[in-house]
Amino acid sequence: MTYREAYTFGCEQLTKNHIKEATLDARLLLEFICHTNRNDLLVYGDREITPEQESFYREYIDRRCTGEPLQYITGEQDFMGLTFQTDRSTLIPRQDTETLVEEVLPHVHDGMDILDLCTGSGCILLSLLKYSNYCKGTGCDINEDAIALAKRNADSLGLEATFLVSDLFREIEGKFDIIVSNPPYIETEVIDTLDNVVKEYEPHRALDGGADGLDFYRIIIKEAKNYLRRGGKLFFEIGYNQGEQVSSLLEEEGYRDIEVRKDLAGLNRVVYATFTEV
Predict the structure, then answer these.
(1) Between the CA of residue 259 and those of 100, 153, 220, 272, 278, what are the distances in Å?
(2) What is the CA radius of gyration of the chain?
(3) Together in a domain, 44 and 99
(4) Most buried of 37, 88, 147, 196 (most Cβ within 10 A)?
(5) Are 41 and 96 in the same domain?
(6) What is the pLDDT of residues 9-34, one digit of tens each?
(7) What secondary structure does DSSP assign to 160-192, as a single string?
(8) Does 145 lie in the same domain as 101?
(9) Helices H, strands E: what count in the chain?
C-alpha cells in the first residue's frame, strides 16, 4: 500500500462512518504513524508504507470510526504551543482553555506560587510555568490516574511542579498568589445531551458540575480565601452562560475587581477576581 492509497482508504472509511473532518483525521493519523508531515502526501505519495505501518493505520482508523477521539488514539494533544500526553483519565486539552491561560499570564510575576485545582492533564499549570520565570506550581486532582498523567507531562516538558491527589483543598497547604481552575461545570441533566464523543469517552466526573453546574465554583470561591495571599487572584474557566452567576458568587464572598473575559468565539470563558482581605 502506498502512502496515498493509505490516506484514501482512511478518508473513505471515516467519511462512510460520518466522522467530522474525516480527511483531516485520516491525514493526521497517517502522519502520526509514519512520522511524516503534510507535505509528504504531495511529494512522497507513491512511497510504500511498511506492513506494520499499514496494520497500525487500519487499527487506528477503525478506532476513529467508532467515535474514539483522535487525541486518545494518538495519546497527545497540542496546547499553548506544547505537546501534552492524553488518556481517558482526563479531559482532552481544548483551545477554549488556552483563553484561561492567556488571561492568567499577564498577572504572573517572577517567583509566584500558583495552585491549579482540578488539574487533569496539568496543561494549565505547566503552560503557566513554561511561560513564566521561577514560579512554583502545585496541581491537584481527585483522580489518581490524572495526577500520574500530569506528572508524566511535567517530565516530558522538563518542568518541575508538585502534583497531589486531593479533593480540592483537602491536601493543600500554604498560601498562593494565584489559584486557577477549570472545574467541572456542566449541569448534570445536560451531560446526556452532549456530543457522543464527549459523552462516551471523556470522564463524566470531570464534566459534572451539579444540578446548576456551579457546585465546584461555590466550594472553591469560599475556601480559596484561606489559601490566597492578600491581593492574590482567583481565575476560573466557565461555561458560556455562567459569567453573571460566577461573578455574583465571587462578589458575595467579598472578592473585588471581578472581570469576565471572552474566548475567540466571543463567548464568556473566564472569570477572575482579587482577594483583598487580610
Answers:
(1) 12, 31, 17, 5, 21
(2) 21
(3) no
(4) 147
(5) no
(6) 999 999 999 998 999 999 999 999 99
(7) --EEEE-STTTT--S-EEEEEE----B-GGGGG
(8) yes
(9) 11, 9
